[in-house]
């Protein structure tokens, strides 16, 4: 039985507890078995409470697709897509000159009314994605400062988790982002950590890529420190990617050890079948035959892993590859393929 279906049968579909085109199995990492949460040592900042409830959007694209398919008589497909629609997903508010405030405020209020935690992704750093599928971002540092200010202001005192700028640090490390922009980016990220971290009930995790992107985690240490990792709640791994949870956690443990036991979160949204074999440069973008991964939860059983999250929103395209729409656009047939993969 696939991991996702087994967990859903055990926990129920609501879970406890995207859309950028980030570039290129649940269990303990390489340092032994998980430690029960009540025995975990304090590793610094206030960790996410175990079994914290995450907010589920009742009007997500998947939920709307289900209603449309039921009206068309596609009941079997609609039922399969419930595996996606009933899970908490990260919210990626508007960037590129748009104001993130209204959508953040709407989500924060809806989550607060249910006493649940909203998950947001800040994805608007200048020179985003090096001009690739998800190119764009704020026009300069001042515009980004204003954007992240609205982002923070509209979270306010709500319970929130923020994944900060997928790709931004790894693209510095791999050389994709031109050196002339490095200082501006470090300043933007560091200021964002401080602005969001000043909120009373917001946790901030800086994106750190995935194990096959920056293969030596030591290369990330100084860039993450310059981005403010020492003042953040930790880092995020596997955003918009397909590496298995076991592989990602092992990598995360190694990076954590280099950062003074920093904690981290893992994107498990589409890693149920692991990555597509072949050229890594091609395997990350809308690969066929993939499946939804472990449902979002803060009850990971690992003292270093604060949560498994669906940061990338399953069913939203990685980019215009393999017949997909633009990055971030809803692609119902791909969403259905991911849900079917989790059922088999």
Residue share in β-strands: 5-15%
Number of helices: 11
> What structural class do the secondary elements suggest?
alpha/beta
The topology string of helices and strands comes to: HHHHEHEHHEHEHEHEH
In the sheet with the most strands, the strands line up as 1-2-3-4-5-6
Instruction: Tell me the Rg in angstroms.
Output: 18 Å
What integer is the average pLDDT?
86
- Total beta-strand segments: 6
Indicate the percent of residues in helices: 25-40%
Low-confidence stretches: 5-46
Largest sheet entry: 6 strands, parallel
| Overall geometric form | globular
Report the end-to-end length measured between terminal Cα atoms.
Answer: 7 Å
Write up this protein.
- It is a single chain.
- The protein has 344 residues and is α/β, with parallel strands linked by helices.
- Helix content is 35%, strand content 8%.
- A 6-stranded parallel β-sheet has the order 1-2-3-4-5-6.
- Strand 5 (264-267), helix 10 and strand 6 form a beta-alpha-beta unit.
- The longest helix is centred in the middle third of the chain and has 16 residues, at 182-197.
